[in-house]
Amino acid sequence: MAANTQFSIAVHLLAGLGCQPDMEATSSRLAASVNTSPSFLRRTLAKLSKAGLIHTTTGKAGSCRLARKPKDITLLDIYKAVEAPPAFAIHHYQPQNACYVSCNIKAALEFALSKPQQALEASLAGISLGQIIRKLKS
To answer: SS3 of 89, please?
Structure first.
């Protein structure tokens, strides 16, 4: 199964914008920083814009900048903005009616995995983009 990297790419983008707050960046320039295509990057930027984390301008000279100070953006804000998947995925196989494990495993796993997911989100809520930027500069 391929890993979803949209969260880490979004943090990369926002950190780049936060490191140079007076400069508005184009999607081409940001894509080069992440080493991805501008079209892929624009989908991520659209999600960040919809969440109110960046301001964008469209057109040939379109660019983007942070909508808030880095200290006011948490990693949880970014995680939710890009609709990152849960830390653990539960399979989507059809249950085999003759097997009680098969019939009940999804509910048991949802119960067991809800606490680690909540802990992950609580941890992300305690880390700001500003902290990430400071770590980059250290």
So the answer is: coil
CA atoms within 13 A on the CB side of 133: 18
Provide the CATH number for the domain around residue 80. 1.10.10.10
Instruction: Kindly report, residue by residue over 15-64, the tens digit of the pLDDT.
Output: 999 988 776 688 788 888 889 888 888 889 999 999 999 998 877 767 88
- What is the extent of the structural domain holding 56? 6-88+127-137
Q: Looking at the domain assignment, is residue 48 inside a domain?
A: yes
Residue 73, classed as helix, strand or coil, is coil
The more confident residue out of 4 and 129 is 129
Tell me the residue type at 51.
A
**Helix H or strand E encompassing 117:** helix 100-125
Give the total number of structural domains in the chain.
Answer: 1
Do the domain assignments include residue 51?
Answer: yes
- CA–CA dist 8, 113 (Å, integer): 22
Asked if residue 74 belongs to a domain, the reply is yes
The pLDDT of residue 90:
87
